[in-house]
Amino acid sequence: MKSLLQAPTTDETNEQSSDGLLRLSIPQIFVRLETDKDGLSSKEAAERLRLYGPNEPVVAGKNALAIQFLRLFLNPLVLILLCASVISIVLGDRIDAIIIIVIVLLSNILNFTQTFRSQRIVENLRAEVAPTATVLRDGRWQEIRRHVLVPGDIIQLHAGDLVPADARLIEAKDLHVQQAALTGESLPVEKQVDGDAAPTANLVEIPGGIFLGTSIVSGSGQAIIVATGPRTTFGDIAAHLVQRPPETEFERGIRRFGFLIMQTVFFLVIFIVLVGFIGKHPPFETLLFAIALAVGLTPEFLPMITTVTLGQGAMRMAKHKVIVKHLEAIQNFGSIDVLCSDKTGTITSGQTHLESALGLDQQPSPQVFLLGYLNSSCETGFKSPLDEAILSEPAPDIQAYHKLDEIPFDFERRCLSVVVQHADQALLITKGAPESVLELCAAYELNGEQIVLDRSSGQECDIAINMYRHLSEQGYRTLAVAYRALPVRSQYTLADEQQLTLLGFLIFADPVKDDVAQVLLDLKRDGVQVKILSGDNELVTQHVCEQVGLESPRIVLGQELEHMTDPALAHVAEEVNIFARVSPAQKNRIIYALKLNKHVVGYMGDGINDAPSLHTADVGISVASAVDIARDAASIILLEQSLQVLHQGILEGRKAFGNVIKYLLMGTSSNFGNMFSMAGAYVFLPFLPMLATQILLNNFLYDCAQITIPTDNVDDSYVKKPQHWDIGLIRNFMIFIGPISSIFDFLTFFLMLQVFHASAVLFHTGWFVESLATQTLVLFVIRTAGNPFRSRPSIPLLTTTILIVLIGLVLPFTPLAGPLGFTPLPPLYFFFLWVMVAIYLFMVQLVKVQLMKRLAH
Ligand SMILES: Nc1ncnc2c1ncn2[C@@H]1O[C@H](COP(=O)(O)OP(=O)(O)OP(=O)(O)O)[C@@H](O)[C@H]1O
Ligand SMILES: [Mg+2]
């Protein structure tokens, strides 16, 4: 076997498998490992990265951008338009064709660049919070981005980490891996190093194989990467896992809305073609007119406006130190009406410190501290803030002890044990939640004496229970410390974790954050109810909640939830605001129950125990310092763990939501009305109400005026309550506001024919200017639920809207008028125009206020 000190080349060391993928086989990696304990050199790693590609499930093609752009032309309407232009050119009508092509091109370029910019922004933000891996390179452990990992890299793994690629263990300490997502097995599996497994063995078949898409629940280890990116065993599934969550209510709404419009467009086209056929209009002209109307009706900028609005929302949130991983999360963020959170680090500072270590005589006990310290320093699982608090104290002398084994922490047992050897004896040291540890104790130690508990007669250790209850009521977090002497062995199991002797308590203080009480009030005022789901005991939780003014009719414990049916829980979850001693699975159940009650639920947490709930909630919120699993499951990451930024973020979410809705309301009311009057006029007029090119231009200018909607201000009254997708509102706008615009279109229609005795060209021009002005200016009315004079639009929105109306007014007087089919308008026209625009806006305002009133009821 040859050494892999050189980067492998395709023809030398890799085999092309039947599926055409390049596989680096395990034996080669082994040789590599034996020859070099310093990890890869950066040079070699770079070389391999070039060879194997980045460690990403699906590699975006080189031409992805070009494809994204070209896809915009795949819209059937656009295709027909382009075909029609080609036909026009053949028929000798160059000017029309050129106009159409220019408009289609401009529109798509605008669409593409805007979308692209927003996507870039989000990608950059996401990169800021992307998970890293601890890798041995150039003989040094370093944190690097996961996508630059290559086969042959040696990585370190700890509890809470996501496995970044397929790897084989070379060192493992009580390493438990959760691989439910890949194998369906819900319990964590222990993984071991298997030096003696056949070197050619398939990774799946050996106990030392760990895979992309799984996560470390407890323990720690080192592994060598054997496959990255698309070559990983479960790459497909893993890619699926990291994909964005299922469709949100908002996305579904938008999709249905699009469908509704498509149907309308379809019938409209059929209608026009029929009328054209019966009225013996020239067929080609009729077709072009119908298609132009269809294009006018389609909100083709909707995806772009959504992306840009959300992108801008994401950027504003980033200024408040809130990072959005998926754009879609923003709408949900604004809709949250129940926010569940765990306690440590959100309500409390999370900077826990050890107040004291007490024996059962309530006096400071160096012995309790020593055992607590041994326990924390020997455990290799996830270091909780409690462990960190213990370890930050001056170390006691622990040289005489060395570690034999450990039984890692889990959130159901709520305790953890380590076994150390002292002289020729083994000592099992357990620390954990007092209720859990007390159940494992058969004796307690008081003033150096062991007192045996008679468990058979149900005797409880009252002295300890009273002590920890008293401490909890004062808001101290307590961990019980117990021990047991055992013979020296190489392995210990859960079965050894019994018959313990209780020694005392470790007392921690975790002060409440300063601003929490105020933020809770603000959240409540803005329609968000806060609930605390804590794994801590009820007394501490209650104390903390009292301090911040969070009220609850009662506190529900995890035990109680165990016997509760789902409907009962749905009821309880509604009224209770504080849950204590809940396990990760129970947290998850509560979130489900709230979702069933039609709440939009946010969940905020940072621990391994929070990951399932972060997934289940409509919006998972985590913090930059959280464990990988939690950060990965969350769609929103707070760079500061503060409820203040969270509140800001929710308001930003509502703003973004509000701006997208504005675009929709505009599309369904003014634009819809316009296109319909156009179709109606077609029935009565001997000529086309407007040329196809003019409709396209009108629509394009109208769209341009809307591009700045994402920058717009949103009324305070709108931001003050959670916003939900409301199809009723959109429908009502379509039914009641749309026709108002038609009234004024027909008024123009009448004026042009009766007052100005207009020719076709003058008619077109008059209608073009009127429809552009009404359709665009109505934005000032629709953008607010209240009085337009009291709600200030953003400067960019004001500028583009006025500019577009001006362009419309000036166009007929420019040299472009000829090619576009316009002619200068008589001065009297402008008098009528302004009167009509004013009355139109006034009427829309009246109807809108009525609609909003009805909605409020
Ligand atoms: N490192 C540890 N060693 C022993 N016991 C621990 C450790 N970490 C946590 N526990 C016990 O498990 C309980 C639940 O853990 P934890 O407090 O992290 O849950 P949580 O649901 O995240 O609660 P919180 O709302 O306080 O964040 C703790 O109250 C404590 O009793
Ligand atoms: Mg926690």
Automatic annotation (TrEMBL):
Family, as annotated: Belongs to the cation transport ATPase (P-type) (TC 3.A.3) family. Type IIIB subfamily.
Subcellular location per the Swiss-Prot or TrEMBL entry: Cell inner membrane
The name this protein goes by in its record: Magnesium-transporting ATPase, P-type 1
Pfam families in alphabetical order: Cation_ATPase (PF13246), Cation_ATPase_C (PF00689), Cation_ATPase_N (PF00690), E1-E2_ATPase (PF00122)
Matches recorded under SMART domains: Cation_ATPase_N
EC annotation from Swiss-Prot or TrEMBL: 7.2.2.14
Keywords: ATP-binding, Cell inner membrane, Cell membrane, Magnesium, Membrane, Nucleotide-binding, Phosphoprotein, Translocase, Transmembrane, Transmembrane helix
